[in-house]
Amino acid sequence: MDCGTEVRRTEFLPTDQLSTLIATLRADGFRTIGPTIDQGAIIYDEIESADELPRGWTDRQEAGKYRLEKRDDDAYFGYVVGPHSWKRFLFPPSAVVATADRGDAGWDLRTPDHEPPRYAFLGVRACEIAAMKVQDRVFLEGPYVDPIYKKRRDAAFIVAVNCTQAASTCFCTSMQTGPRCKGGFDLALTEIDGGFIIESGSAAGDDVLQRLPTAPADETAFARAESARQQAVDQITKTMDAEGLRDLLLQNLDHPRWDEVATRCLSCTNCTMVCPTCFCSSVSEVSDLTGDHVERHRQWDSCFNIDFSYMNGGVVRNGIRSRYRQWLTHKLASWHDQFDTSGCVGCGRCITWCPVEIDLTEEVAAIRRSPGDPSRPAADTESKP
Amino acid sequence: MTNMAAACSTIDPWLAHRATVDRMTAETPGVATYDLVFADTEIAGRYSFLPGQFNMLYLPGVGEIAISISGDPAESSRLPHTIRVAGNVTRELARLGEGGSLGLRGPFGSSWPLDDCRKKDIILVAGGIGLAPLRPAIYGLLHDRDQFGQLTLLYGSRTPAGLLYTQEYDHWRSQGLDVQTTVDRVTDGWNGNVGVVTTLLERLVLPQPENTALFTCGPEVMMWYTIQSARECGIPERNLFVSLERNMNCAVGLCGHCQFGPEFICKDGPVFRYDRVASILKVHDL
Amino acid sequence: MNPPIQQTLPPIARKQRLAVFKFASCDGCQLSLLDCEDELLAVAEAVEIAYFLEASSHFEPGPYDVALVEGSITTPHDAERIQEVRRQSRFLVTIGACATSGGIQSLKNWADHQEFLRCVYARPEYISTLNDSTAIADHVTVDFELRGCPINRHQLLEVLKSLISGRRPRTPTHSVCLDCKRRGTVCVEVAQGIPCLGPITQTGCGAICPSYDRGCYGCYGPAAQPNCDSLTSQYLNTGSTHETLIPLLHNFNADSPPFRDAGNRLRQSAVLDSSGGRP
After folding, report:
1. What tens digit of pLDDT does each residue of B141-150 get?
2. Taking the model in full, what pTM does it have?
3. What is the distance between the alpha carbons of residues C268 and C262, in angstroms, rounded to a whole number?
4. Final residue of a structural domain among C132, C165, C198
5. Which contacts qualify for A68-74: CB closer than 8 Å, 24 or more apart?
6. ipTM over 0.95
7. Which of A65, A266, A271, A357 to mutate to test the interface with C (most CBs of C within 10 A)?
8. What is the CATH classification number for the domain harbouring C56?
9. How many domains does chain B have?
10. Touching chains, A (3+ CB pairs < 8 A)
11. Residue that finishes a domain, picked among B79, B108, B137
């Protein structure tokens, strides 16, 4: 969808009309995906009405810990980000990329041409919009386009929500991705007493907005929204110094900190799975017993898996040290070379969902405190030819 | 280096095309060359590749592997792939036999920079099966023989029986390629050189090292010593090219497997100018 | 032109002969084969089931192309029998936690088995058992192992499919966490504080337990390169006790070296703690 960066129109949507927004999107043929409570967390799943939203709930997050708590108000979006990210809808955990059927003349090879669902995402945060833009670079803007991602992304309608609070794991301000949504959405909400400031950011957003029972937003509402958004900024305490980070890491590929973090890291893949930008995958063959009908399943995979770097002759990254280093240097350093952006949006999921509380901002800070000798770089720090 | 990628954004990168094993030729113990042809003549007509590029060969239910094309780029109707039996896919391919059906996607990746090396002396240094990705470059160089200076192939193998394409050496020599071979281990009847391939390079007289280019493909450690020797011979780093290998899954930079520092071997490589990867080649386990 | 000799394997002209052997075990893994209801007929058609006492009293003598071996070695007789099974089998696959790591019965390796015999049997002198329950791989070369208590039907079918097509089976070696994430299960450790062995346990089950709000208890055994000590020290720091963690590790795969050693270290530190020593 055309998601310009300009706010085209701003209105006030009363709290009790949030359901109308959801109903309108559903009437337009979208599958509405939004936050809902399940398994002790706020996850993203299909919702049919505002009743399924985590109204009155919040999340408390720290390294290795996530807990739901009751709020003392009945805000709809009074939480931060949870274990899921929208990537599971745009880049599904498992997808069929091709099929093969044995015929008389040999293999009949095809790629699926079915249309995926048209998703409307409700409650997309600024860091998550940034993450989509990062994955756009990977899947859409390189020499080859991923057809599965493209169909889903093109069809998606994005209802963003501006954060009004932050978790202790948030550091979007360091990565300059939030907390304010500045484009990349069709509609954006800021939750205030009695309703939402609703902005449209695209023609598709205009079209939905003009069909909603909104009222003009007055100065008081604008001021309340501004102060709610400022509260999120004020609550962010975590920082990661992104200045020169690429060169710092690539100059320190043999830093002793990699050995130290390897004693703690489980290589369990949790950080890569919850990361909204990690895009690694593997294709496996799924066939019937005759072997005549085969589907090629692409599944999420992770650079933390040993088999991931397997070649004839052995495994390239045959230790937790080299796998953690691969993940962090890719995310924060070589991503710049590959996609002209950092791979980190500062959402903090990898910190919260690490079972042993590894915090990438601390790993970066440790290397920054005692960098190796930059006169003997372990890797090229100049731009590529 | 040429990247084919720009023209590829409209195709479904996952779609393989039906191909047939037209001919299998035994090469060395455990290694054979499979000439593949597309079943669909329209696809065959569209297909072209550059020396050094690779295809993904797909056996449904078994798996898919990246294999360099080892044939003549001027004759892309028949696509030779020289393959050593190493895992499930290669074993099954060996069993498939002539007439067998498989899937083929490609070509992918960068190529040996023949066009940029015109007027230069060119040295090709290969180890073992690493000659296969260089053979298209040999054909290309010999097609335009007058465009290049002195042409040398330095080729090392563990044993004499491991030398690939021996039946072609005389023809290559007659067309102006100096073919020199060496083996690590002598067996009966071998009267040639013994020792690692870098000794051939050290012995070579380079009339104009600054105007010489070197392409190398083989085990990483062999390429590393080759590069060091080449630098000592005075060949500039910008004229050194290596072909690297990593686990490839998607072949188009979307799956993450083949990353080597900032590089995706599948789409930035497999052929790299040495100075682009020099520093990361030194890092263990990268 | 003839195909190159060195590179071509003989074509599979006859059906592969399959044998299923049982050692000390509960039969649950063998039952997984019978549990392949939808595929069972196709399996029976595609391979010759030459020896499978659980399913048929009729059996054919060896040699066999593939042997599925269930159970651990706990008696002198079985220690000899597995040698014969190995001699008769071209490709030997151990199935289940008992066969791959000694099983739940390897808990006796930490105890006095004579005492167990006295407790259980009226006439213990008639019972001939070994001190330890050990994995098949401790006795003979194993070509492939299928983990789990019990094994997973789909992984078993992968072994049978590979047998039919003459290739090596493939099963993933990554952690359970990856599968929790793929299926959308929220981490029970991070969100609920439930100690879970998922991060150090090999996948294969499809991450069932966490989807029912309980922690993984490691029935597929250790994942590749598991960092057990980091996980156990984390759990001790966040409120778990030795009393919960030791039986979590010393469980269905108690005798698999990573779980065995990590559990032993916890036992030692528990002793030190209770005796007032430094952990």
Report:
1. 999 999 999 9
2. 0.93
3. 10
4. C165
5. A68/A37, A68/A40, A68/A41, A68/A42, A68/C191
6. no
7. A266
8. 3.40.50.700
9. 2
10. B, C
11. B108
